[in-house]
Amino acid sequence: xxxxxxxxxxxxxxxxxxxxxxxxxxxxxxxxxxxxxxxxxxxxxxxxxxxxxxxxxxxxxxxxxxxxxxxxxxxxxxxxxxxxxxxxxxxxxxxxxxxxxxxxxxxxxxxxxxxxxxxxxxxxxxxxxxxxxxxxxxxxxxxxxxxxxxxxxxxxxxxxxxxxxxxxxxxxxxxxxxxxxxxxxxxxxxxxxxxxxxxxxxxxxxxxxxxxxxxxxxxxxxxxxxxxxxxxxxxxxxxxxxxxxxxxxxxxxxxxxxxxxxxxxxxxxxxxxxxxxxxxxxxxxxxxxxxxxxxxxxxxxxxxxxxxxxxxxxxxxxxxxxxxxxx
Length: 327
What we know:
Number of strands: 14
Oligomer: single chain
Distance between the termini: 34 Å
CATH class: Alpha Beta
CATH topology: UDP-N-acetylmuramoyl-L-alanine:D-glutamate ligase
Structural class: alpha/beta
Mean pLDDT: 94
Largest sheet: 10 strands, mixed
CATH superfamily: Ribokinase
Shape: globular
CATH architecture: 3-Layer(aba) Sandwich
Number of helices: 10
Order of helices and strands: EEEHEHEEEEHEHEHEHHEEEHHH
């Protein structure tokens, strides 16, 4: 049974995410281009949606705020969310727009090109308006998670900033730095809007490229300091083979990556995000949170899909146990 089932229907959500959703279409043959692929699998996708799924796998009561097309893929999104135990009450269709579809190629260990369809010039999840938001539910959530992509276009930009303001210092507010160049005219434009969002967050997380976009510096410790100077309590810098650097008011923690044979690295960051939410809500110290999140990301990197691959807490703890035994 999903952990959310034990909570009252009217109880505040533990995790609410807001932003991108779509359908991921992944090849069942790896190491070849899309032109040579013979068959595909269909999965729920979109980074903040995957984070909500990942948090639900850890027993957290979650919801996602997003939009789909009024089409069969939109129906699939609702069915998939419910199947994963994610509340879909804040997911609605946008007339005249298709649910986005994302294809990828899989060339392990580190080449996973993405091809977005139904996102140009806009997408349903970028049509969320501020006056449609349940700001009371957003304010009451223990964790609220947004992405930089949500700032790339109106009306989503205003809605995202309004949602962040509604938090007013409550709980844990996470900004996934999630910079996707195809959604922006320049890094400078993205940096300008991130600068408006960061003061409302308690946590910011991203890789080195995303931190450079957000704060203008690429050195991990300098980037974390810039994030802390902007107002976040916890700055999380993902460094690939160098592991993860986390800086909070108690100092800096660096944890190494968890070795796995990579199948598809695309969902690892979302698994990390859901595990990050779970660890923060559990009140763990920063090092334990980072090790747990790292292991969750590694598990998903070793699997084909994203949302379907999100691990349970027991699976993550087992992976940590294996790693400790090998060490």
